[in-house]
Amino acid sequence: MPSQFFGLNIAYTGLLASNAALNTTSNNIANVQTEGYSRQQVVQQASDALRVFQTYGCAGAGVDTLAIERVRNEFYDHKFWEANTNFGEQNIKSYYMAQLENYFADDQFTEGFKSIFDKFMTEGLQEVLKQSGSTASKSQFVGYGSNLTDYFNGLAANLEKVQKDVNDELKLKIDEINSIAEEVATLNKQINVIELTGSKANELRDRRTLLLDQLSQIVDIETQEIPVVDANNPERETGAHRFLVKIGGGELLLDTGEFQELECVARETYEKTNQTDIDGLYDVYWKNGQKFNLNSQTLGGTLQGLIEMRDGNNGENFTGTITGIGSERRTDPDGVARNHDTVTIEVGKSYLQDLNKCNLSDSGGMINLGNQIFYYDSWSYTCTYQDGEPVYTYTFVLSNSDLNDRHITNDRVGKNASVGNSIDYQGIPYYMNQMNEWVRTFSQKFNDILNSGYDSYNKEGCDMFTGNHATDDEQYLFEESTRYDRQTDGSLTVSSTDSSYYRLTAKNFAIVAGLIQDADLLATRKNASDGVDQYDLLEELKLMASDKSMMSFRGCSAGEFLQCILSDVALNASNANTLAENYKNISGTVDTQRISISGVDEDEEAVNLVKYQNGYNLASKMIQTLTEIYDRLILQTGV
Question: Do 153 and 507 meet the contact criterion of CB atoms below 8 Å apart?
Fold first, then answer.
């Protein structure tokens, strides 16, 4: 039979339960505006009943307050992280594509390519046509040409600045990942310390989830929480958990209290991938020296958006099949003659068969030969004819043993070779390469026309467009022997060190210095016997702006360059804006759903406050009633 004071103990448990519920409600109300806070609730259950050996069997023993737990549905957390990762990628692309749109703009506020090109090919050329013997009109025409070269120089500098900004932001995001990983690892330790005692570390878990929300926007994440089992008693709940976070498609970032740190390492000049890349682009490594795969299709988040903007080549990286291994003796920069391994690679992609479209580094780089990485110093392009069909090959001269710790072997023949990675997005390298292609093609055709005529001194015409050297004040003198675009038979080899149009880029695009000093060197007539007022050569130049048979760029005429580029920029910007908005809405919807479960609702808490207050009051009333009963029983009942 239970004690006469059994009812008092029951009322006491009710008082404790109501008090815990009131305190929890107070905590919820206090954190109603706290970011990442999850609503908490008291977990109660009826106490084990007592057997009283009466006809009614058992007597209720009150209520047990088991725990205070946060209300959270992890399914919505994972869905939010997935949408947030996609939003992070598209949002950063949208930001940088907006900059590219501004740089390529040609409107009432910005004088762009079309305005400058029309002045050069229409206004400037028309003045020379009117007065072909006038030095002043020729000088004006050369000046308009200089404006065109300045436009491409400035545009290339702006795109280099964007690439640098993207590269710098990549480092900031890697530092942010390290900071978040360190804090999450610390939280994991604190959570386990608290939960080993049987309590729930609700606030610490909320903080951890909030950090994972931030991490999910930077990179794709996977999380796994595994209960720690007591090997001696597997049935016992220890309360501790092993918490794993993986990023970028499965690479382990942290394991409970231990985390791996990432670091950015700037590439050396001999590690460049593209001719147009700025120096010091970052590769990312784990602290243990293992390379972090930035080109994974599952990288996700802001990191993937940054990498695609920085390195995106529209899937047009160098790739081919190894057809031969050889050796070449050459003098290295230190003045010592050494034997260097060479490798010949046959290419089939159309963008690799035209050197105007080539973007291979001219200062050395890394090449993957049958899944083995080698460094190379230089390369040469060769076109031969077999049975009337052209065969295109590249021969790479590999670096000495200071960089390559092994020689290439014949077992590489027949295997695939590649430089860089195929990144199917139109990033900075793509737009730089498009500008280079136009500049090279236009300069070749324009210079060819001028070279076929005569100037005011009855001498053969000279080039108008060239490229400035990067290291001195000299300019390139393009050699006829390197004109790969004119070959129709036999064999032609062009080295990356030759003075060919490959060396001409949007960045070094320039007017021949002699033509700036003396505009009368500009050829205007086809025949030397014609008078200085003859301008039939200029009529041919004029056609270049609109005649696709004279110059074609992506199936368009020379004057439609901006239309081609802007269509790419506008499409990519529009896609990024649309997808960023869509994923923002999706993540917002998912966040609303999880907040509906875990968020604090003021009205609901107000109702709970009244409910738990009534429960507390009733428990107090029960204690008061039992006090009166015990008073009668003890003090007023005689024996």
Answer: yes
Reduced to 3 states, what is the DSSP secondary structure of residue 380?
strand
pLDDT for 513-544, tens place per residue? 999 999 999 988 888 877 777 778 888 888 88
pLDDT tens, residue by residue, 547-599: 888 888 888 888 888 888 988 999 999 999 999 999 999 999 999 999 999 99
CA 103 – CA 42 distance, rounded (Å): 59
**Residue (of 65, 85, 90) closest to 13 by Cα position:** 65
Predicted TM-score of the model (pTM): 0.91
The Cα–Cα gap between 448 and 560 comes to 21
- List the chain domain ranges: 1-71+600-639, 74-317+420-468+508-598
Q: Kindly report the backbone phi and psi dihedral angles of residue 40, in degrees, each rounded to the nearest multiple of 5, phi listed first.
A: -110, 150
Residues with Cβ < 8 Å from 313, sequence gap 6 or more? Answer: 274, 359, 420, 422, 423, 427, 429, 430, 433
**Max Cα separation, the chain?**
150
Any idea what DSSP says for residue 378?
Answer: E
Distance CA 637, CA 630 (A): 10
Question: Which pLDDT does position 487 carry in this prediction?
Answer: 64
The low-confidence residues of the chain, meaning pLDDT below 70, are 1-4, 485-490, 638-639
Tabulate helix, strand, coil % of the chain (nearest 5): 45, 20, 30
Whether 543 and 94 have beta carbons less than 8 Å apart is answered as: no
Per the CB < 8 A criterion, the answer to whether 81 and 213 are in contact is: yes
Question: Residue 428: what residue type?
Answer: I
Q: How far apart are CA 508 and CA 510, in angstroms?
A: 6
Position 600 scores a pLDDT of 94
CA distance 332 to 634: 109
Residue 219 near residue 302, CB atoms below 8 Å:
yes
Q: SS3 of 250, please?
A: coil
Which candidate, 553, 443, 436, places its Cα nearest to that of 120?
443
Given phi > 0 = left and psi -120 to 50 = alpha, else beta, which region is 468?
beta
Q: Which residue has the tokens 């393009």?
A: 478
Burial (0-12, 13-18, 19+ Cβ within 10 Å), 348: exposed
